[in-house]
Each structure stands twice: as C-alpha cells, then as structure tokens.
Amino acid sequence: MPSLKTRERLSEVRYEIRGELARRARELEAQGRTLIKLNIGNPGAFGFRAPEHLQRAIADHIHDTDPYTHQQGLPAAREAIAAFHRARGAPSVTPERVFVGNGVSELIDISLRALLNPGDEVLLPSPDYPLWSAATILNDGRPVYYRCHATQGFLPDPDEIEALVSSRTRAIVLINPNNPTGAVYPRALLERIVAIAAKHRLLLMVDEIYDGVLYDEARFEPLAPLAGDLPCVSFGGLSKVHRACGWRVGWAVLSGDPIASGDYHHAMDLLGALRLCANVPGQFAIEAALHGADTIGALCRADGRLYEARRAVIESCAASEHLTLHAPEGALYAFPGVRGAAAEGFDDHAFALELMETEDVLVVPGSSFNVPYRNHFRVTLLPQPDQLREVFRRIDRVLARRAEAAGKVVPFPQVPLSAHG
C-alpha cells in the first residue's frame, strides 16, 4: 500500500524539546542507561510538588468534577483570574473575557486560529518558545522573527520590530519572562512595543506563564495595564509558578476595548466550544493559586532551590573557557553559548547528541528555538545545584574534546625544492 500522506506544513514545524533527541534518550534508557534530562521544564520530574493548598482545593471539590463546564471555564475560576488581573491594573477584564484551557499550549493554538487567515504574519521573538512558531504555521500563518541578541541581554530592539511590520502583520508576540533565555522585559521597552502595536493596529499576545519566577532584583511588568484599550491577550497558568504541569490548567485573558475585540472574543468562544471544555478538576485550584499563599518566592530568593540552581549554572559557565552566559533574570532556564576553539564549526544538534551518547546528559539545541546561529543550547534550572555542577563538568569535557580537535591543524605538506630552487 502507498504510505499515508500527512499535512505538508508539518515539515516546517520543529519541536526538538520532545523530538529526535528525546526519542534517542528513551532508547538509551531502555538499554539501562541513566540520563540527566534537562530538556523539559517539568518541575514534578525533579521532586517539586504542587502546593498542598492547591491539591486540597481539588480534593475538596472532586465530587463536582464529573460534568462538562462552560467552554470558557468554571465561573468561579474565571472570576478569580479576572480579579487577579484587575489587581495588577489591567483594564476591562471581566470573567466573560477569560478563557480557561488545557494548558497555555492549547490556548496559544486557539488564539492564533481565531486570528489568522492564510498568509497572515505574526511577529515572534528569536529565540522563541517553538510552540508559538508551530501554532502560527499550522494555522496557515507566517512567523516573522525579531532578533533578541545575547549582546543586548536577549532583549529586542523596538525599531527592528516596527521595521518588520507589513500589511499582513496581525500580532506581536512577547514571552516575558522569556523562555529560553530568562530575559525579563523592562517597562520602558514594553511601552515602546505597545506604541508600535497601537500605531499599526496589531493584537498584542504575551506569554506570561513564568510571571512569578524572578531572581535578584528583576521586576515583572504585566503587559495588559500598559496596553490600556489596545486589545491584548495575556497567557498564564498553574504549570510553572505553581509546579502543576500535569494538571494542564492555563488561561488567556482578553483585555482592552471590548468593542474592538468583540469579533475576536466570539471566535475564541466558538473554538473553545468545539473542544467542549477544559479539564475541570484542576480549575478548582485556580482561586487558591492566585489568591492564596505565595509558594514560589522562597524558591527564587537567595538560598532557595531555584536561586541556588541558577547560581550553579552561572558559576559553572563563568569558570569554563568554552562557555558564555547572560545570567537569566527569570523563568526556569539558561541559554549558554559556546565560544573559543570549541565553537569552531560547532553544530548544536551534533553536540547535544554527543553529550547524550558520551556523558548521559540531554539538553536542547539552541537552533530549536528558531535562531539563525548554532552555538547555543538550553538547560533547565530544575535539578539540584550539585547535579547541575556535575552536568556542566560533563559539558566541559565534551567541549574540551571539540576544542582540542579544532586545534589539531594538519601540517601543510613539505614539497622538496627543485634543482632550480
């Protein structure tokens, strides 16, 4: 029989976080190898637990979780989310403009599907979280990337963003705090991007899933209050700040002028209705998460586990002659770059494969995040600090071998002089 054909645009989609390298990792584990897997920001896999008061909120309401709920989510959960955003200064946020989904991933797809016609463009950061690119492509849009250079702290240049706007541009996407780089966007930068969106009548879409994961003096600025009446979709959830990835609870909040975004609201509501509703049990934890005790702050302060894991990565990179790093200010990742002799002819995918095959460590190649260069990789900050120090000792061994190989220059062959000199 002829092979079953698949959608052609899938060939444009990359998601190496769970791709070819992760499949090879499973093969090695099946052979009895023990790998340190730093490819996924999955707190529960590293011993973190969702806070007890969130677990209790679900247990106390488990008898109410059998029926479908409204396609936008439980009314009480949506009111808790709306109140949280109003307290942060977001205008015109009501429960009717809140959408609860099976994680932010589902809501990113729905929000782009509600917006895009074939050929429409979305401005995305480079590096980005690759789901944004994939969802744009699979909804027949075209990703257009604005660069976030390491030399600029992985922050974008608003002038470059505006230069990329075309007649087909529909939205500007921000990821703040950023995955994979850990950059946290200052207020002045966000205000300039809002001005660009207002000038060109673009939708703002901001992935704020790491809004509470901040280090040192970093300050998170929510985008919706700065956007004012401009339509803005803000994404958040329980997966990261509240360490409950498996519950698949995320939300999208539509702020700004409700008249200007009325048709878009109805489109998102329709798409939500087509999938009936989101997971119900996890929604009972939303109010406790947003209006209960802060459980992430202590982990991110000095002596906290995430802070010390970050310190281990920063110090390991500083001590290496092969690595450079802009210290992450937020989120759960670091995005080191390879420098010096080890960087000559460096291929991030080949490096990641060699690191896994020879040192039992799985990382994500930097090019998986839609950047044009191949000398970066991403690690998660979730392991214990001592384990991260060991990881970087192994990384240094691989890079030292590559630097040594690069330094071995084949001598130019000696040709005997002729009789005529």
Short description:
By secondary structure, the protein is an alpha/beta fold.
Describe the structure in your own words.
The chain folds into two domains: 8-48 and 298-403, Aspartate Aminotransferase, domain 1 (Alpha-Beta Complex), CATH 3.90.1150.10; 52-291, Aspartate Aminotransferase, domain 2 (3-Layer(aba) Sandwich), CATH 3.40.640. It is globular, with a radius of gyration of 23 Å. The chain is of the alpha/beta class. The strands form four sheets. A seven-stranded mixed beta sheet has the order 2-8-7-6-5-3-4, with helices on both faces. The longest helix has 23 residues, at 385-407. It has helices at 20-30, 52-60, 75-87, 103-113, 130-138, 158-163, 187-200, 223-227, 262-274, 286-291, 297-300, 305-319, 348-359, 385-407, and strands at 36-37, 98-101, 121-126, 142-147, 169-175, 203-207, 232-237, 250-255, 323-324, 333-334, 337-338, 361-362, 364-365, 377-380.
